[in-house]
Design brief:
Low-confidence stretches: none
Mean pLDDT: 79
Shape: rod-shaped
Largest sheet: none
Number of helices: 1
Structural class: mainly alpha
Helix content: 25-40%
Number of strands: 0
Amino acid sequence: MNANDNDESRSVALYWDFENLHAGLFEAKYSDGAYTKPDNRF
């Protein structure tokens, strides 16, 4: 950061990995390994 930067010029980026979020929720509901079965992904 530069010495001239102030709080108003700072920003944050947020990355959502929806595939991993979906996989985690799917496996929490249907059991471990359920998401990796080819016919269950979509």
